[in-house]
Design brief:
Number of strands: 13
Distance between the termini: 35 Å
Structural class: alpha/beta
CATH topology of one domain: Anaerobic Ribonucleotide-triphosphate Reductase Large Chain
Strand content: 15-25%
Radius of gyration: 21 Å
Oligomer: single chain
């Protein structure tokens, strides 16, 4: 798309730009040509390709940021699911490849690389099983590698055996990283209907249907929307609030497209997508929760929150899709508990509960995100929480995910401290009764009737 000068000037000078940032520029890279005869040779090939293809990523993104005077919070990469490289390899391949990826990320100056991933909604191969077995060690011994697993889709059903296996690995990872409040679990997402072009962590991977190399942009801006709503009349009807949010999303997305066009040209790769999600940070004022409170609830989590979130999410999507033909990823409003100041306060006060969070995920992007729970959570309860959220995504034909953190030694009312963009999370209460039957039965939940579209 060609930008006219007056359009660029209007976009980059809109009134609330001082509250806006580009949350991430993420390069997607195929590693399917990195198969070698041995485990170490494959890991070496992965390292070499990452270092070569992304050698200019950080430098060029920083120059774009300076050119337009808009901050870019993160420079990231998303790679082909590592499970693809593990088929036909030995049991040590996943760990060797993971260390190679993490080493490359550090040398390149990247914040994160996503793609220690597998698509296991229908079954699990030997290579994928090796990947999962290595997961706790990988998440403990690496710093910048993120992991995701797709365990359900509307077309295939829900793989309960996969959820049970991953739940065990989550508890193992929590124990191995207990000295840092189980931060290893913050780098792992379990998905239903995972998308191939998500630029946000921890769920990013470069999908199998995509090309060799692309770049995508994830915009942010809850602070922008908050400022717009704070200046609106308190009795403005909801449809007019909707219009304000939609117009604001349109302008933010135009900035995102400007960045995407420039990044693809400089990095000499395909234009990917613009993810128009509102992604909060722990900084006061940069909160999706505060936006919902300005829309009309006393505190996020109380009655009416889901309706307010539905309005916000749809307005963001409509404004963004009018601004560009490249909308993709997850796109909407994120509700990561530990990364949103208003949500943290609401959870501490008891207004925002796990059950209400699950209800909110019916209308927003992703799902239960950065939720800390007591470290002694029973396996059956953890399985039930993940299964509930993935079933919601499967039946409603939407992407949902679970990034849950059992924190050893801590219980309801305590706080887990992660630092940086991950913030801190109050340990949220769980139900006493368990899903023991789901754990003992295993198996899979078949495709819902919604999945039959042929």
């Amino acid at each position: 798309m060609t930008f006219q000068l007056n359009e660029i000037l209007e976009t980059i000078s809109f009134p609330y730009l001082n509250h806006f940032d580009i949350r991430t520029v993420t390069m997607g890279l195929s590693l399917r040509d990195c198969h070698r005869s041995g485990d170490q040779q494959t890991a070496d090939a992965v390292y070499d390709k990452l270092c070569f293809e992304a050698k200019d990523l950080v430098k060029e993104v920083d120059q774009i940021s300076q050119k337009f005077n808009i901050p870019i919070a993160n420079k990231r990469m998303a790679i082909t699911p590592v499970s693809v490289l593990c088929d036909g390899k030995g049991a040590q391949a996943p760990l060797l490849i993971a260390h190679a990826i993490d080493k490359a990320a550090k040398e390149l100056g990247l914040d994160f690389i996503g793609g220690y991933s597998a698509l296991i909604d229908k079954g699990i191969t030997k290579g994928e099983r090796n990947l999962i077995e290595a997961l706790p060690q990988v998440l403990t011994e690496t710093d910048r590698l993120c992991s995701s697993f797709n365990v359900a889709t509307t077309r295939t059903g829900l793989n309960m055996d996969a959820i049970i296996l991953l739940s065990k690995k989550i508890l193992e990872t929590a124990e191995l990283t207990k000295e840092r409040d189980a931060i290893g679990c913050a780098k792992l997402v379990v998905f239903a209907n995972a998308v191939e072009d998500n630029p946000f962590m921890a769920g990013a991977f470069h999908g199998m249907s995509m090309g060799d190399k692309s770049v995508s942009v994830g915009i942010s801006g809850p602070g922008v929307v908050r400022q717009v709503l704070a200046e609106a009349p308190k009795d403005l009807p909801l449809q007019d609030i909707y219009t304000l949010i939609k117009k604001t999303s349109f302008k933010m997305t135009r900035v995102g497209e400007l960045f995407l066009t420039e990044a693809a040209k400089r990095l000499q790769c395909d234009q990917g997508i613009i993810d128009i999600s509102l992604a909060p940070t722990p900084t006061p004022g940069d909160s999706v929760g505060e936006v919902l409170e300005l829309i009309g609830v006393d505190q996020i989590g109380t009655h009416g929150t889901t309706a307010a979130l539905a309005l916000l999410n749809d307005a963001i999507k409509k404004g963004g899709t009018m601004a560009t033909s490249k909308v993709g990823g997850l796109s909407g409003a994120f509700i990561p508990l530990s990364e949103d100041a208003a949500m943290i306060e609401s959870a501490k006060s008891g207004t925002l509960t796990l059950d209400k969070l699950e209800a909110m995920t019916c209308v927003c992007s992703v799902g239960l995100d950065m939720v800390a729970v007591p470290g002694d959570i029973p396996l059956a309860t953890l399985v039930g929480i993940i299964a509930d959220e993935c079933a919601l995504g499967m039946v409603n034909n939407k992407t949902t995910g679970v990034r849950i953190i059992p924190v050893p030694g801590k219980t309801t009312g305590d706080t887990a401290i992660f630092g940086g963009l991950l913030g801190e999370a109050p340990i949220i209460s769980i139900h006493d009764k368990q899903a023991s039957g789901l754990l003992n039965r295993g198996g899979y939940i078949p495709t819902p009737v919604q999945g039959f579209r042929n």
